[in-house]
Design goal:
single chain, five-stranded mixed β-sheet, four-stranded antiparallel β-sheet, 33 strands
Length: 441
């Protein structure tokens, strides 16, 4: 009997912790985490020095001048807007589930959601583009462009929306325009080489890049090529996709070789370009990776697999280079950038002079807040709402922090999160692992 009681006590102490009760350290979305780890191919690359890992408290009485919270009723770009930067969103912050849909797809869906005129638009690996009306509580359109010969190919679609038209590029080499209201293909072109970038729209053009690092400007009306700009091709391919970001009449293009281009979208002329590939040997066989470009009117923020750069958008001058990499896409708020490093630090930087305003260990803050043993959290998205920082974890928790970096609240989402969340009408929308839409008020 004593042996039995001893075994029971041992099992209890091995399993009794906050982690097992709530899963704050657990990574429920293990498959997504592995797919999103674009830096895993670079572990053997030597760095010039150890990565930044310092704690820097914010100065007493420091105040951020943050843009006022704003409501949004649409999400037409997978990265929200032309410059890939999030707003300071309004959010009701009641943490209450107010809507759950039926299952929207039986296949694996893309991690990015789009939203227009009360309709959620998603796509899956079979090439289905699904339009779900929240008001009607039903799928109003399910479209598949692909013929039987492409049935076994896993489709990777890049989407962007404008005036009920979904522009699509894919990993087969197709570019097409589809009106989801009329359920009609407006035009379709096969350019043979797989596309490998997000899409951007100007007044007359669709901008895209293929896997060979060729940058294209296409006619929005018919898909014909307006301008082709070849850039450095990389022999060895990785999971990093070319990235595009717009600022007024300027396109910023980061290719897989590590070169950043500034291009005038009116005359297609290159303003300047620089190379950010810091590998020991800079050649066409090098692997380069980075988070999506984020910019405001004067600065560009790029976090590569080795460093984070703040660059003058007018001249291409590097204002500062920091020895850390971001694990999720950074956010610019006014003259500050906020990011989470691979070392799990929440860092804020002054965009004007490149100074670090603060640096805090997020895992340490979680452990202290919950009075538990420190472990490692797994981050999915970094966003701003109601002047506060929201960090979404892969295990469906939300960390709420002051903009000065202090953790003050932890929420648990009512259902597991699969996609990157979006803000619509002061609520949070996301898809669960079961492909059901959740609206959180």
């Amino acid at each position: 009997m004593k042996l039995f009681h001893a075994l029971i006590i041992l099992i209890f102490f091995q399993n009794c912790s906050f982690d097992n009760k709530s899963g704050i350290w657990k990574n429920e979305n293990i498959k997504t985490k592995k797919n999103d780890d674009i830096f895993k191919e670079f572990k053997k690359i030597s760095k010039s020095s150890d990565a930044f890992n310092k704690i820097i408290p914010v100065k007493k009485n420091f105040t951020f001048r943050i843009n006022s919270p704003s409501s949004t009723s649409e999400w037409k770009d997978i990265f929200y807007n032309k410059n890939n930067n999030y707003n300071n969103f309004k959010y009701n912050d009641l943490n209450k589930k107010i809507y759950k849909s039926k299952k929207l797809s039986k296949h694996e869906v893309n991690d990015f959601l789009l939203f227009e005129d009360g309709n959620l638009i998603i796509n899956d690996i079979k090439g289905n583009i699904i339009t779900f009306s929240i008001n009607e509580n039903r799928i109003i359109n399910k479209f598949n462009f692909y013929k039987k010969k492409y049935k076994k190919i896993k489709k990777s679609l890049n989407l962007i929306i404008e005036n009920n038209i979904i522009y699509v590029s894919d990993n087969i080499g197709y570019l097409y325009a589809f009106n989801y209201r009329t359920n009609k293909i407006l035009w379709a072109k096969n350019y043979k080489i797989p596309f490998g970038s997000n899409l951007k729209l100007t007044k007359n053009s669709i901008i895209a890049s293929n896997q060979n690092n060729s940058l294209f400007f296409f006619n929005k009306k018919n898909g014909e090529i307006l301008k082709l700009i070849p850039t450095e091709e990389v022999i060895v391919k990785n999971k990093f996709l070319n990235n595009l970001s717009l600022s007024q009449n300027t396109l910023f293009y980061l290719n897989t070789y590590g070169s950043l281009y500034s291009i005038d979208v009116k005359n297609f002329k290159i303003n300047w370009f620089i190379n950010l590939n810091q590998s020991i040997q800079v050649d066409v066989g090098n692997l380069f990776s980075a988070m999506p470009i984020v910019n405001n009117s004067s600065r560009i923020v790029i976090s590569s697999n080795l460093s984070t750069f703040i660059i003058d958008s007018n001249t291409g001058e590097i204002i500062t280079k920091k020895n850390f990499s971001a694990s999720v896409r950074p956010i610019i708020q006014n003259n500050y950038v906020f990011l989470i490093t691979e070392e799990n630090l929440l860092i804020s930087i002054n965009l004007i002079n490149g100074d670090i305003i603060y640096s805090y260990d997020i895992n340490e803050q979680i452990a202290q807040f919950l009075k538990i043993k420190k472990d490692t959290a797994h981050f999915k998205s970094l966003m701003f709402a109601n002047n506060k920082i929201l960090i979404f974890l892969n295990n469906s928790y939300i960390l709420n922090l002051q903009n000065t970096g202090q953790l003050y609240k932890i929420n648990k989402l009512p259902k597991t999160i699969k996609t990157h969340p979006i803000f619509i009408s002061d609520s949070i929308l996301y898809l669960t692992n079961k492909k059901k839409l959740i609206i959180l008020d």
